[in-house]
């Protein structure tokens, strides 16, 4: 029994190593660079193990996406908690002065959140992987479907915050937030020279002022 338990644990660790190596390759070289040999070399495992643990390359990429999506949702839920806390404090008062303070606090919080995607290595890696998955063409139907489900899941999370502030159009407002952040992310990954923290801050302040005022 003990030997069987150790074998299962070792297998799980090997499987995770393969997934992590796949994500690393996606971050550095993109989805089209993936092959069983490249992944096995990056994971430092035998070539046969990539097909032993994953029935196909599509299955391996999908498993890597699931790992990515799980981390992403946790990160989104964390920042959403911070945003909702600030919003609830504003909603208990609701004066014009409090609204302006709320917008400034949220602008500072979200600007810092986006800025760390440049300075924090793990966050930047996650951002790069996100862009590869969201903007990839020619992928399997399974992956395309799962990415669509993930995007809908993220939108539903942001809709809850829009509903918290009494938005009459929570789905539209959620999409406005998502589209704005995706533009920021693309600029970060592509190294857009015209993109800077001042633009992020001013854009977010304008967007948040509009959303919180329910204009």
TrEMBL record:
<dbReference type="Pfam" id="PF00440">
    <property type="entry name" value="TetR_N"/>
</dbReference>
<dbReference type="InterPro" id="IPR001647">
    <property type="entry name" value="HTH_TetR"/>
</dbReference>
<dbReference type="InterPro" id="IPR009057">
    <property type="entry name" value="Homeodomain-like_sf"/>
</dbReference>
<keyword id="KW-0238">DNA-binding</keyword>
<dbReference type="GO" id="GO:0003677">
    <property type="term" value="F:DNA binding"/>
</dbReference>
<protein>
    <submittedName>
        <fullName>TetR family transcriptional regulator</fullName>
    </submittedName>
</protein>
């Amino acid at each position: 029994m003990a030997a069987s338990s150790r074998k299962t644990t070792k297998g799980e660790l090997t499987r995770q190593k393969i997934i992590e190596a796949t994500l690393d390759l996606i971050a550095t070289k993109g989805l089209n660079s993936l092959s069983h040999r490249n992944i096995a070399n990056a994971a430092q495992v035998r070539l046969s193990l990539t097909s032993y643990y994953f029935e196909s390359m599509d299955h391996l990429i999908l498993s890597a996406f699931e790992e990515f999506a799980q981390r992403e949702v946790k990160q989104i839920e964390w920042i959403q908690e911070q945003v909702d806390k600030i919003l609830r404090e504003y909603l208990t008062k609701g004066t014009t002065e409090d609204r302006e303070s709320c917008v400034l606090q949220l602008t500072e919080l979200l600007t810092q959140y986006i800025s760390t995607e440049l300075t924090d290595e793990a966050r930047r890696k996650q951002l790069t992987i996100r862009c590869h998955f969201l903007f990839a063409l020619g992928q399997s139907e399974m992956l395309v479907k799962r990415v669509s489900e993930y995007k809908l899941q993220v939108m539903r999370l942001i809709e809850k915050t829009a509903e918290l502030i009494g938005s009459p159009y929570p789905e539209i407002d959620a999409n406005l937030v998502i589209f704005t952040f995706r533009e920021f992310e693309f600029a970060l990954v592509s190294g857009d020279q015209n993109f800077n923290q001042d633009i992020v801050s001013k854009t977010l302040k304008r967007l948040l002022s509009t959303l919180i005022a329910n204009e």
